[in-house]
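Run log, item B.
One chain of 216 residues. Sequence copied directly from the ordering sheet:
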Amino acid sequence: MKPIIRTLSLQELALLVDWAAAEGWNPGHEDPAMFQAADPEGFIGAFVGDDMVAAISAVAYGSEFGFIGLYICRPDMRGMSYGKAVWDAGMKRLSGRTAGLDGVAEQQANYRRKGFAPAYETIRFTGRMAGQPVRADGLRMITTQLLSGIVAYDAHCFPAPRGTFLKRWLQEPHHGLAAIGSRGVTGFGVARRCRSGFKIGPLFADDTEIALQLLE
């Protein structure tokens, strides 16, 4: 049956994030609303009747960059080309932009065939923090007064401006810290509560010492 392809509602995006949790991706509790704020049209689903059978995020950051993610087909609907349908819709939406994605190892050959090339490796670590006091000189909780400096700093680290996204991502209940030096912002990091524990990201800094200070 030919699916209907359309933009997801917030409730449908929440279902997609539940699918991601079932795949072991450990999303954050506030991810649906935060992600949708970045690009309300950037989440696309394939529907058979009233049932969502596959979905993808194709979030545009301005006119030159976009990112593919949350690409999932419901397990009982795989092998029926529903995944390809949302993939094609996502790529069409990002047409003309440089597009990036996180590719799991078993799918990298598939992404190469679609025209993607490896840019870097992602290594994920998990563990319990020691809970010992650390030096906090120059660290500040991220407030609205620091937001413009954070957005400007992020623009040197991320391929495209994403001020709209950061304004939401840096809000409570996320926990954001900025490192402030004589020249202004020298790094920042954000922690968010997830289905299991917390995730930290983004974390950008001028050097390793500042990065470790923010991490700890």
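Observations after the first pass:
- The first helix runs from residue 10 to 22.
- The first strand starts at residue 4 and ends at 7.
Flagged for discussion on Thursday.
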